[in-house]
UniProtKB/TrEMBL annotation:
<protein>
    <submittedName>
        <fullName>M4 family metallopeptidase</fullName>
    </submittedName>
</protein>
<feature type="domain" description="Peptidase M4">
    <location>
        <begin position="66"/>
        <end position="148"/>
    </location>
</feature>
<keyword id="KW-0479">Metal-binding</keyword>
<dbReference type="GO" id="GO:0004222">
    <property type="term" value="F:metalloendopeptidase activity"/>
</dbReference>
<keyword id="KW-0482">Metalloprotease</keyword>
<feature type="domain" description="Peptidase M4 C-terminal">
    <location>
        <begin position="151"/>
        <end position="316"/>
    </location>
</feature>
<dbReference type="GO" id="GO:0006508">
    <property type="term" value="P:proteolysis"/>
</dbReference>
<keyword id="KW-0378">Hydrolase</keyword>
<dbReference type="GO" id="GO:0046872">
    <property type="term" value="F:metal ion binding"/>
</dbReference>
<keyword id="KW-0645">Protease</keyword>
<keyword id="KW-0862">Zinc</keyword>
Amino acid sequence: GASRCGAQTLRIDASLRVARATASPGARPAAGATAGRPFSVHTARHGTDLPGDLVRAPGDPASGDPAVDEAYAGVEASLALFSEVFGRDSYDDRGAEVVATVHYEQDYDNAFWDGTQLVFGDGDGTVFGRFTKPVDVLGHELSHAVTQFTADLTYEGQSGALNESVSDVFGSCLKQRLLGQTADEADWLIGEGIFLPSVQGRALRSMAEPGTAYDDPVLGKDPQVASMDDYVDTQDDNGGVHTNSGIPNKAFHLAATAIGGKAWEGAGRIWYAALTSGIAADTDFAGFADATVTAAGAVSPAVAEQVRAAWTAVGVTG
Ligand code: ASN
Ligand code: ZN
């Protein structure tokens, strides 16, 4: 199935270049085994040995290899989102080096965080192109690392769907920030551009309209759901984590558009505060809804009400 994570051109603006300058290797005293460079990009040369060969580190010129340079830009921009918007110093909040590897295996149709590092396939060349192409896929995968080091949401059932959803939330925030779009202007697609032209689909997922991202003779239809009324009970995909994530995704979309303005500054900060508020690993949708309403209450009672209404609209809270 196409239960994978998901093209727009990266715009690396002045603020990101400043972020890189201030996060240069010399700026931080060595604080432990993981505190090296801010990030590094490696190649597996179409094999499976990780991390593979170092190809590009901060300050190095573009390599000319699109997968390497997309991974470089996407990791840099993801670190800037977490640092500049959420006040987080890398995925562990202690400046750990983000290690990314591209050209993993042959025709590999996925990208993932393996618990230690990021890994990206080149796609099969028929259905999927490079998994480094959509910047929100980069942000999605690095956000799995952030979740691992914070709430560590168990990757099964509702907590697993929340784990998936917060990766889409921060991946979408990353994309919207790079494009300079407000919540109303954004397309809310995850992985736009990852499908090659033969596929009848726009993206891997739609946060605004879960279940409508693709409908293709080979891939089938986007299986995501947008309401508790349609919650899928299944043994597949760790209990439908990529399917039921449409429910909290839609709640985020509704909250962000109700609050208005830039999603990463409004609803994004609230979702990040909820994720890092001390919630348990087995938190369910209702528990996470409570955490976001509580976090929104620190903004204002009106915003808390907007967030509560978003969760009610998808059937999570009454
Ligand atoms: N790309 C997938 C994801 O991040 C890989 C996985 O771990 N299921 O959800
Ligand atoms: Zn994921």
